[in-house]
Amino acid sequence: MIPLKEYIRIGGVFVLALLAGQAVAAADDTKEEVPSIICGGCVSATHTSQGKGSITPYGRIELDGIYSTRNTNPLDPGQFNGYATAAGKGGNSSSTLNPRYSAFGIRGDRTDGTHVLSGVIEADFYSQTDNAGNLSPRLRLANVKYSPNNNKTSITVGMDWTPIMGLHPNLIDFSIMGYNGNLWQRLPQVTVRQQFSENFDGLITVMRFERGLSACCGQTPNRVQAPGASASSAFNDPVQMPYVGTRFGYTGTGSMQGFMAALNAAFRHYHAAPTTTTSIPSNQDVKSYLIGGELVIPITKQLKFSGELAWGQGLGVEFFRYGQERNLGTGAPIRTLVGWGEFDYAYDQNYTFIAGYGFDNPLNSDIRGTTAVADQQYKVNHRTYLTAVRHIWGDLYGSFEWNHLMTTWSTNERFSGDNFMVSTWYNF
Questions:
Q1: Which domain holds residue 182?
Q2: What pTM, to 2 d.p., does this model score?
Q3: Which CATH number belongs to the domain containing residue 239 in this structure?
Q4: Residue 421, Cβ neighbours under 10 Å: how many?
Q5: Is-contact 220 234, C-beta < 8 A?
Q6: Which distant-in-sequence residues (6+ apart) come within 8 Å of 366 by Cβ?
Q7: Cα 151 to the chain's mean position, in Å?
Q8: Total domain count for the chain?
Q9: CA distance 424 to 378
Q10: Is 396 helix (H, G, I), strand (E, B) or coil?
Q11: Is residue 161 in some structural domain?
C-alpha cells in the first residue's frame, strides 16, 4: 500500500509522518519504542513521571496613600511621587493614591526527594513611566532553580533578586532604600549556591541589569558602525560584561538562632562606549567593585537589629543607583560608602514597629567636576524612617510610614523633605 502522508502537530511543531496503512492496522506490540520529540519552546510538561509537582498562584493587592511635603522623588521624576529617593529642589507638596505595588505570580515545584526543581514568574505594575490609568504589567521575577541533592547545591538561572548584599530593610516604600544605603535590584543571573554545613553557606554569581538598551539617566552612548566610519548608530549599552560576585554567610542555630553574618564581593571591568547626549568622556576603561557585609542580631525574642555596610566604586543600575556610577563631567567612576540599619520590634502577634536609618555618601573628590545640574548627582543622601504594621485579619495588613530625606547635591544645594504613607495590602 502506498504510504499516507500526514502532518502531525507535536508541541507546536508540525512534522511530516509517513504512515503505512497496513502497519497501522496491524500494530506490532513487540516493535521498538520510538523516542518522543522534545520541542524547543514547548510550554507543556513532557516528563511528568519524574517527581511529584505542584502549581501555586500567589500575589498581593495593595493600595498606598502617599503625601510628600516637597519633591521627594527627583531621581525618578517619571514615577511622580510613587516612592521616595531623595529631597529635591522642587518645593511643592503633592499626594497620590498608588495601586502599582500590587503583584501577581505563579510558582511551580517538583521533587522526588532528592532532585528539587522550582520555577517562578512574577509581575507588578511599576512600568518605566507614570502613565496615569494605563499601568502596564512589568516583569519582576522569571527564574528556575534546580538542585540534584536536596538543596545542598543549587543553581538559579533567570531573573531573581540580587544575590549580593541580599539583606533588605523592612520599610514599605517601594524603593527599599535605593539611593539611601541599600544595594538591591532584580537581575538576570546565573547563581550557584552551596550549603557547606548547617551554619555555613556560600555562592558565586554572574549577574547583569537587563535594561541595557533603554535610554536612562542622560547617558545614551553611540557605537561606531565600522572602523573609521563617521556614521554611528544609537546603542545604549556601555557595559560590556556582567558582575562576577560571591557571598559567604553564617546562620546561627540553637542559642544563636536568628543570628546572621555575611561577607560579599563583586567586580566587573568594562570599556565605556562613546556618548553623544552628555559631556561624559568616551572610550574609558571603568572598573567597578563592591565589598560589603550583612548582619542580623536578635537582641530579645521580640527585638532584632539588621543592617548592611559596603564600600564600592562605579555602582549603578545593578544596585538601584541610576546615574550615580560615573562623574557626569569627567567620566571617572565614583567611590561611595553606603549603609543602613534598623530595629524591628514585634509588640505582639498583631503589631510590629520599625525604626531605621540609611545613607549613601560618595567621595566629594569624585563628585567634583560633574555637571552642575540640580537633582541629578548628590554628595550625600540620608533617610530616616519609622514604620508601624498592623495585622488586621487573615492575610490583610495595614501600615503607616514616615520617611525623612536629607540630600546635599553636587551643586552644594541642601534640601530635606518628608514622605508619609498609609498602606493596606492583602497577600494571597
A1: 4-34+60-427
A2: 0.84
A3: 2.40.160.10
A4: 23
A5: yes
A6: 327, 332, 333, 334, 335, 336
A7: 23
A8: 1
A9: 33
A10: strand
A11: yes
